[in-house]
Amino acid sequence: MRTASRALRSSIASRPPATGRSAADADRESLMYKYLGEIRLFAGDVAPSGWAFCNGQAMSMTEYPALYTVLTTKYGGDGIKTFNLPDLRGRIPVHIGQGPGVDSYYRLGQTFGEETVPLTTQQIPPHSHSFEVAATTADATAPAGAMLAEAPAQSGFTGLYTDTPLQPGTTGALAPQAIGSTGGGQAHPNVMPSTAINYIIAITGSIATAATS
Q: Which residues contact 184 (CB under 8 A, 6 or more apart)?
């Protein structure tokens, strides 16, 4: 009887309203019909009867055997006593597969993406750094721990640059303040403007059959 009732509702939802029935009645019956595992958006904060929030909760395989045949353990669960509902909290659903211009193939139930992303040196735009020099007369000839400064008179310094190749062990790090520091190393937000709303999944209803051409 339940199967026949569902088939009747499906037939009613897919045909124009009969004489004596309003379009509103047909729309209402259409909205009542649902497939097991069907997901809809819902603006309320309490899941309607026959629905559950897509929050990854564990479901009993013995209590919801038909729903398990639809979801299996693609979204988690031990596959012995429990299976999990999809967890869409803070996530955006995308269609499975690999679309045009998309590098990755996404499987059913796969999660991916990051809320924040730290940039690598290859990802940051071209830029320059400030180079600090001292406004005093130089008093040292070794660069280690020092900063560039004005050469003193009669010092024997002939220039700032040289064509002589550096030999191993002849380099040294300048003082930390010699080159200005840029960046803080923090990850940047990777979330588009969004509005939080509930996704609900049908935990009762008809089992969908494969479409035929």
A: none
